[in-house]
Design brief:
Elements lengths: L3 E7 L6 E6 L2 E5 L6 H10 L9 E3 L10 H10 L3 E4 L3 H7 L10 E4 L4 E3 L2 E7 L9 E9 L2 E8 L18 E5 L4 H5 L5 H7 L8 H14 L6 E5 L8 H14 L7 E3 L9 E2 L7
Parallel strand pairs: 3-4, 4-5, 5-6, 10-11, 11-12, 12-13
Antiparallel strand pairs: 1-2, 1-14, 2-3, 7-8, 8-9, 9-10
Helix pairs in contact: 6-7
Length: 279
């Protein structure tokens, strides 16, 4: 049985990319670093290279999730970029036109699709990017069962049944962007603070915790780990995010579920969706 693993390489407004691996297939979810050198360096921290990547899966079109530098890297190494069909026109105008090179480009809709041994189920999340912002349920056959990783790293709210997309996941990656008190006391102007706090902005630590409680209450099994993503550099700290979410989970009897914060400027640990087989 080949390991099914997820490794956030960068997470935050300065750039996002997450490595997903299973049975010889490797995909990147987002590639939002502003230089080709930075992307190469991030991959090398996981022992990977562009030639190892089978596809880049784009959640939405903000520059911290897909950047012209990544388009050039993908073109050079013939790595296909996969994005929602509703984002194609804006991608061509905002990203592709600013890249020195262009390579394979494929679109997806609402239906599940596969990249090698990895299955992907896209779903819409509320966020103010042009076009459509996606979360993903990523699935792979691990031994005699299907393992599931659910992720959404930019979303303003978790309502409208979105929690159902995360039920029975083996790993959950969810945004935990800001602490409300830190946001209120921020140096940013009123418009920026209101945007972050809106239903199409970002998820607070408390919102993330309550969302996770709902997911776990509806699940037949609990996740092996929760990874908090896209923490604000100005309105949050890893300790505050993890502490708030753990406290909320503990209040409802889920305090034993491990909670981690993805790193902003370096690679996070590799999280396994299933136990490693014994040799």
């Amino acid at each position: 049985m080949s390991n099914f693993s997820v490794k956030p390489l960068r997470s935050g407004s300065s750039g996002n990319l997450t490595l997903v691996e299973h049975a010889g297939t490797t995909i990147l979810v987002d590639a939002g670093l502003s230089s080709q050198r930075g992307l190469v360096s991030a991959l090398s921290e996981a022992g990977s290279h562009w030639d190892d990547i089978d596809a880049v899966l784009v959640s939405h079109l903000h520059a911290d999730h897909i950047h012209p530098s990544a388009v050039a890297c993908c073109a050079r190494h013939e790595v296909p970029i996969l994005l929602h069909e509703k984002n194609l026109r804006a991608f061509s105008r905002r990203v592709l036109s600013r890249s020195s090179m262009s390579g394979p480009l494929r679109t997806f809709g609402a239906e599940p699709f596969s990249v090698g041994s990895i299955g992907v189920v896209p779903f819409a999340v509320p966020h103010d990017a042009e076009g459509l912002t996606c979360g993903f349920r990523i699935e792979a056959l691990a031994g005699d069962r299907e393992a599931r990783v659910s992720m959404a790293t930019d979303l303003g709210s978790g309502g409208n049944g979105l929690y159902e997309r995360f039920v029975d996941s083996d790993l959950i990656l969810i945004e935990s962007n800001y602490d409300p008190v830190m946001l209120t006391n921020s140096h940013r102007n009123h418009y920026d603070r209101a945007r972050v706090d809106s239903d199409v902005g970002h998820l607070s630590n408390e919102q993330a915790g309550k969302f996770l409680v709902r997911v776990m209450q509806e699940s037949r099994k609990l996740p092996r780990a929760v990874v908090l993503c896209h923490l604000s550099a100005d309105h949050n700290t890893p300790a505050k995010a993890v502490g708030t979410v753990r406290e909320i989970l503990s209040r409802y009897g889920f305090g034993h579920v491990p909670v981690h914060a993805a790193r902003r400027h370096g690679a996070s640990p590799r999280f396994l969706a299933v136990d490693m087989p014994r040799q």
